[in-house]
Amino acid sequence: MKRIESSKIFRRFLISYLVILIIPMVSGFISYQVSLDTAEKYSIINSRQVLNQSKKILEQSIDEIDRFVLQLSLDRDLNFLLNKDASEKKRIISTLKQLDNKLSSYATTNEFLGDLYIYLKNSDLIVTPGSVYYRPYHFYENDNYTDMTMSEWKEAILNNERQIIPSKLYMQGETSTNVITYVQPLPMSNLSDHTGSIIIPIENRLLSNLIEGVEQQFNGWAFILDENHQLITANGIDKEKINPLKEKVINKEGPIYLENKTMLITEKSEKNDWLYVAGIPQKALIQEAAPIKYITWTVTGITFIIGLFIALFFAYRNSRPINNVIKTLKEYADPDVKNEYDFLHGNISKLISTNTDLQMQLTEQKPILKDAFLKQLLSGEITERNSNLHEFAKQADVNLSCNHGYVSILKVEGYEDMSSSEIYQELNAIRIVIKQESMKIFDNFYVATIQSDKLVYIFLDQEGDKVLKEEIEKMFTSLQNLFQEEYRVLLKIGLGHPFQSLSDISRSYNEAKHAIDFASFSNEKQGMYWYDAVMKETTVFHYPLEYEFRFLKNLKEGETLEAEQILHELLEENVDNRNLSADMHEQLISELKGTFFKALDQYAFRNDKTAEILRQKIRAISFEEGMKEIEGRLIEVLQLYCEFVNKNRRESNHSIVNAIKDYVHEHFSCTDLTIYMISEHLSRPEKYISQIFKEETGEYLYEYLEKIRMEEAMTLLTNSSKTINDIAELVGYNSAHSFRRAFKRIHNMTPNQFRKTSE
Questions:
Q1: Residue 10 sits in the same domain as residue 127
Q2: Which of 10, 401, 427, 544 could form a disulfide with 319 if both were Cys (CB 3.0 to 4.6 A apart)?
Q3: Cα dist. 398→202, 402, 457, 471, 495 in Å?
Q4: Where among 502, 533, 564 does a domain terminate?
């Protein structure tokens, strides 16, 4: 019976764990479905972007051709030649030559214009870049359409309107290629009687390159149809397979799915009604989701198996102590219960209700805990280096959201040599009243008792030091006046320098103690004593730790001017503003020499001759010299030290820049090369190497990388016959298009134009 009862809790734990384990199975299935939908969605978006980009580039190219044709149609030489007949061929030779020169210059500016020619009907001439054909059949023997006779060709190019002839097989000598043909009858102002035409054959290869992104990114295919649904160009698909697809895509929007689950995406040009079609195979749609599917189900299966064993283990481990507690409680309580959890709830409630006095005692301990925390903060036992500082503060009900402020000590005068229970009770009452009255005036502080007649105030505030200082002085002045008039009690206040961090509180506290100790020996009945004012009236030299830390920091960073300023301030305060004895002067100089020795113990100086030279110069400083001479010697050591630090930094920067350049020269052909990869190789932050490279070379790192790539590209264009695509890949560009764009931006010409000029 006991076995059965104890196993109920085990089963409840196990079932709850198993329910949780089902969640990964469900989330795995949902993740897979979402990944499929997302992959398809982004494939559609990306393919549309590729088509839109291709459409944009092609439309821009056609627009450029239109602008070129319009400009050429207005040419004076061309219009002169259009009106000349065959009998005047010999008289127009010079004009033909001038027109030929113009066509040659046009042909080099745009790769689409490489094969353009002009047919002059009246004079029966054909003008091409570099040649003039006096007999058109000579031209057509070399450059002709395989499915058009010469008379059909003449009729096509003298059509009554601008047209683009769809893709046809075109012979150029012994070379055949598919071209679309741009035809513009002349003159453009006459719509019926044309005396010539500008004809521009455009290789399908140039158009096919624009839509090759679909094949590269998705392993798919693409084609373009003109406004009459004639094929312009295709990439990755045969012409025979395109005809059956025309009916599916014409006048239809949105993705279309074929029987083989290939997805068709269409984009229509608003300018010329051309239709851009892309086919994305299903394999490309789900290839990004496949790893997610594999990982999801693998992780889910492994998680379920491991989780099952863990569930068994934790169910046993968590149920066992509960069963033991129930077993123990049943020995002292009513064992006849139906539900173990109700049994635990009832008995534990009784235990809590019988221990309310314990809760009250814990509440009473909070002020003691707070006082102890504040004393540890003042003594420096707890600093910002403690990882659980804010957790301790929260337990002690102390808010440390601000990290700067002041520490002050309030002393009740006249109770130094008195000790009795009555005096202690009276001081306790005075402290309580002081705290209450302080809170009425200014409530942004914490207070702790360090002696029966002394209170320590820690002021924390977000306001500026000047504003906070005025508030503190106002509060203490009001307290002093109130207690003198109402209670005949005199108060003295000692205040330290402001602290700028929680770790600096102990320093400010020690300064406040110095100030209150000075106040104890003062003849004044009450007053407010700031550490700065107290130190000026003493014979102790002024060299706080914070000054030494700042001095060492500036030496380490090679900041000569900042370090000289700190040294000048120290000497001015101690020599000009204080009446120090000779011993105090000597101790001050010894402290300064000690600071320099601390700086020399750094790693950079350990094995360097400069360190020994500096040590000799420091040892040679003697108090017997005047303070001006001593200051000059200290500044000389300071400057030599900073000069050595800056020299080391420059050498280090130079070596880093050389390492960056070597790495760039070695890996510039990598398309994935980034500043992050360089920083990983050098084990330095990205921002650091970028800043160092800019400071040392005067140019940004990405500019230098682009320059190296362009230098190599120019070498390959000049000394090799590699294609633009191959060169783009060799010099580290993701595509020939991005390479051409970068090359033209830098050199104001395309790679093809550069290659021609360098021949």
A1: yes
A2: 10
A3: 80, 11, 13, 21, 21
A4: 533
Contacts 24+ apart (CB under 8 A), 556-562: 556/599, 556/602, 556/645, 557/645, 558/642, 558/643, 558/645, 558/646, 558/649, 559/642, 560/638, 560/639, 560/642, 560/643
241 and 305 both lie in a single domain: yes
Domain presence at residue 472: yes
Q: In terms of domains, do 418 and 471 share one?
A: yes
Beta strands, E only, 146-230:
163-172, 175-186, 196-203, 221-225
- What tokens does 272 get? 């010329």
- Among 590, 624, 651, the domain boundary falls at 651
In 668-700, alpha helices (H): 675-682, 686-697
Q: What is the pLDDT of residues 204-220, one digit of tens each?
A: 877 777 777 777 777 78
- How much is the pTM? 0.37
Give the span between the Cα atoms of 187 and 452, in whole angstroms: 112
Local structure of residue 576 (DSSP, 8 states):
I
Give the domain CATH number at 33. Answer: 3.30.450.20
Which is nearest to 516 in space by CA: 534, 498, 500? 534
Whether 1 and 136 map to the same domain: the answer is yes
Closest CA to 593 of 524, 560, 660, 641: 641
- Structural domain count, the chain: 4
CA distance 41 to 494: 72
Torsion angle of alpha carbons 270, 276, 282, 288, nearest 10°?
A: -70
Candidates 675, 674, 671; CA nearest to 734 is 671
Residues 556, 519, single domain; the answer is: no
pLDDT per residue as tens digits for the range 289-310: 567 667 777 777 787 788 777 8
Tokens of 17: 């764990």
Q: Is residue 74 situated within a structural domain?
A: yes
pLDDT band of 408, cuts 50, 70, 90: very high
Do 286 and 387 belong together in one domain? no
Q: Do the bridges between strand 491-495 and strand 527-530 make them parallel or antiparallel, or are there none, so unpaired?
A: parallel
Question: Which amino acid appears at position 208 of this protein?
Answer: S
Sign for the pseudo-dihedral over CA of 709, 712, 717, 720: negative
Does the residue 659 lie in any domain?
no
Q: Which band of pLDDT confidence, cut at 50, 70 and 90, is reported for residue 348? A: low
Mode of pairing for the β-strands spanning 221-225 and 231-235: antiparallel
Mean pLDDT, residues 569-588 taken together: 75
Task: Say which amino acid occupies 121.
Answer: K
Cβ(278)–Cβ(213) below 8 Å: no
187 prior amide bond cis, ω within 30: yes
458 neighbors 376 (Cβ within 8 angstroms): no
Tokens of 167: 């893709």
Query: Does residue 369 sit in the same domain as residue 304?
Result: no
Is 255 within 8 Å of 265 (Cβ atoms)?
Answer: yes
| Residue that wins the pLDDT comparison between 654 and 260 | 654
Question: Domain residues for 744?
Answer: 668-758
Residue 663 counted as domain residue? no
Check if the beta carbon of residue 322 is closer than 8 Å to that of residue 340. Answer: yes
Bridge partners (DSSP) of residue 499 are: 405
Residues 606 and 681 in one domain: no
Task: Report the phi/psi class of residue 240: left, alpha or beta, with left for phi > 0 and alpha for psi in -120 to 50.
Answer: alpha
Predicted confidence (pLDDT) at residue 118 exceeds the cutoff of 80: yes
> Is residue 334 packed enough to be buried (19+ CB in 10 Å), middle (13-18) or exposed (0-12)?
exposed
Residue with tokens 């700067």: 404
Buried-exposed string 565-586: b where 16+ CB fall within 10 A, e elsewhere = ebbeebbebbbeebebeeebbe
Q: What CATH number does the domain containing 751 carry?
A: 1.10.10.60
